[in-house]
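Thread: Cytochrome P450, structure

OP (GT): Posting the sequence first so everyone is looking at the same thing. Length is 418 residues per the record. Can we get the structure tokens written out before standup tomorrow? I want them in the notebook alongside the other entries.
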Amino acid sequence: MDNLFIQFSCSTTVTLTTVVVLFLSTIVLLKKYCKRRDGSSSSRNTATSPPISIPLGTLGWPFIGETIEFITCAYSDCPESFMDKLRRVYGKVFKSHVFGSPTIVSTDADVSRVVLQSDSKNFIPSYPRSLTELIGKSSILLINGNLQKRIHGLIGSFFKSSHIKAQITLDMQKYVQESMALWRDDQLIYIQDETKNVAFHVLVKALISLRSRKGNAIPETRISTIYRGEQLTVDLISDNMTDLMIPGEDSVPVLMTLAVKYLSDCPRALHQLMEENMNLKREKAVLGEPLSWSDYMSLSFTQNVISETLRMGNIVTGVIRKAMRDVEIKGYLIPKGWCVFTYFRSVHLDENLYEWPYQFYPWRWQEKEMGCNFTPFGGGQRLRPGVDLARLETTIFLHHFVIQFRFGPELRRTVPIH
């Protein structure tokens, strides 16, 4: 990709073949666009209904569209700059061309909510080929209809069971304490690496049981108990095993790391978080009881810190759906075959929805309920089933972190409290 970009930006010679290819490609795209626009509007009664049309915008370069600019901004200090630039010109819903497909981008909370809550008759998941090859065709991220509902329900029930929550609580405490016990004053601590190692081990143990049946050396995977009696294929189970491991390797550790970063920049929030967690520790010590998952989840300000971290961090920036037929939402036409990119980051940083959107302010959640404008893990029937697990693990990590260590913006490494 780097070589391709350099070659494209530095070349000064344009051959006749290149001109012809670009011209023909443009013609094809224009014909498809005109055909879709004409065909979609003919089914409406224009005498009684206002006309609808494809949102304004640009499809960018042939084939590559605006993908390069989008990815470049995504790795910058201001990832939403690409979307904000187009939103200022075309409005909250606009057309583009990213990841190889003409796409309607939604930074409008109402439009995104309709897309997320729609069933497979209107929209199905659509992701870049590199991702689909990684997670497999049978992943819960890609399957549709009754099978998706059934698998989503099974996985959700598994993670919400009191037995699994109790085990994950104990394992998380164990691995966090073992990790932190190795930290030293003169040692540089890489929080994301540490949290990644902890979260990954916890999830592996939750999903995989190394018990062997009597007289049989083959280990039994615990995840198979989720699907027991469901007559599901091995490929489907293995693909979803991979899918469930991704949060343990990526999303949850990033959430923990960003929480530490934002807290280090906000001494007031850090102080209140530490006080809340120290109070819980003292209460449980008096009772002589260990902390349970319900104790951790009762830490209200800690939960507000996590919610604010999710809002500002936008670990899941958005989801992509493909229209299975022409769909109209709020006067916008989404043509059949086009993709919709519901971009959560712009919604979560919208000043009309959140005061001081770029300020880390956990207290906003004391007065603001988590409504339809807050979608850090998606929404609808495809809401990530591990959301409670992510919160639990992050709460446990923050609890042990703030009661054992002192840190702030003036210190780039953690300092144990003596």
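GT: Both are above now. Quick notes for whoever picks this up: The chain has a mean pLDDT of 80. The first strand starts at residue 93 and ends at 98.
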